Amino acid sequence: MKPNNLTKNTSFIPLGSKDLWRVLSVCGCCLLLSIFIIFKSSARQQPNMIVYLSDDLGYLDVSVYGADVVKTPILEKLSDEGMTFDNAFVASPSCAPSRAALLTGLMPARNGAEVNHAFPKPAIPYLIGQLKDNGYSVFAFGKVAHYGGNEKCGFDFHHDEQTGLYDNISGYFDSTKVEGPVCIFVGDRRPHVWWTDKLDYDPKKVDLPPYFINTKSTREHRARYYTDVTGMDGEMGQVLDYLDEMLDDNTLTLFTSDHGAQWPFGKWNLYDAGIRTPLIVKWPGKITPGTRTKAMVSWVDILPTLLDVSGSEIPHNLDGKSFSEVLKGNTNDFRDVIYTTHTGDGNFNVYPMRSIRNERYKLIVNLIPNAYHTNHSDILRKDGAGAFWDSWDDQAAQDPLAAAVVQRYFVRPAVEFYDLANDPNEQHNLANELAYQPLVTKMKKQLDNWMVAQGDEQKLYKQPYYFPGPKPNGKTIQERKNEH
């Protein structure tokens, strides 16, 4: 019988202590080398990440979320390939506070950027540093932080020009060698005002929210806004195609917007038209394509999630937390409530408000209800922004229904309470309804306790426009009535 290796005669040579030490040393080196190789292999599994930001885009104004007229085929494709969040919310419905919350993982009262055109307090770190500490190269193109703020965030490179994003991005990476995992932030200023003069949509065919006043000027401005939305979508397709060619398949792509559009009851308001935002995330092999989730998430959760999936350290004192388990499809629940704040924007908007929202109900507290709510749109009334307001006032002078819309815009009660399941457009304030008093009281207490925990001083940064003084805009409704 042919002997096998187990029965084959062999000679045994005993090892001395020096020989044994050499063997152990070699084995130890091999073990360390194996650990190093495994570590390097694991490090290479860190995903590249693309964060694409739109500016002033209402969540209902893209086809992914049900828009009938405006076309956004790139977002539809991204949704088909990734996960779409139906309940994503910003921390604050104005540019600077929203972006500061995104980049710090802290709500406005805690990071210090409460009013528009403000930045976080100097002692507050941006979470870009956590990615860089973990080996990432981090880049910013366009409007990522608020105007002039990209240099404060610690990006390895930032290009602040807000037009020509595709040319700027491709021009940079065509001439620059990039090693290791990358995180690329891209911020398109569209559809922020002023809206383009182009009309890719017929003003007669655009759709309007039911609480808008239907005028020729409103429809023309809506068509211009839609044109910018589709323009943003188209250039994003160019940018993502380029980056797909540059990066490998292990790339997480996230799209969102900093808040709603600069329309009445949108930006600078805590209605869903102002605070609810599109959020779509694609990650091949990790996220099931074409999925939707009802999980409620906040903009302060985005960077902690990116830190989590990249294996980067997450600071312990953040307001935001990772929703990576939602991305993996392990849960459809995340936050029980969403808190949002708005404090103001210079002299144009001095109307601070706070809100708490759960899956069905929303409570809004207007901190100075004895003042007019107002902002850039109705004060400046510039072409391509708020010029349609003149037509609203003219209509309100003749039509009681239009007058009620204008009145509701300028004058708000101290407390608003909405049943979002039955009133998604937040048109029927139930704050004084007897049946809802227990819920109003409960949610008001939750909101008050949260503000205390946040250190929210409910500070007024500018002088409000108290009534019965004049509104800071054009002619009053009574003056227009007298003209007819």
UniProtKB/TrEMBL annotation:
InterPro entries: Alkaline_phosphatase_core_sf, GAG_Ulvan_Degrading_Sulfatases, Sulfatase_CS, Sulfatase_N. The chain crosses the membrane at residues 20-39. PANTHER family: SULFATASE, SULFATASE ATSG-RELATED. Belongs to the sulfatase family. Signal peptide: none annotated. Keywords: Hydrolase, Membrane, Transmembrane, Transmembrane helix. GO terms for molecular function: hydrolase activity. This is Sulfatase. Residues 47-311 form the Sulfatase N-terminal domain. CDD domains: SGSH. Pfam families: Sulfatase. It comes from Echinicola soli.
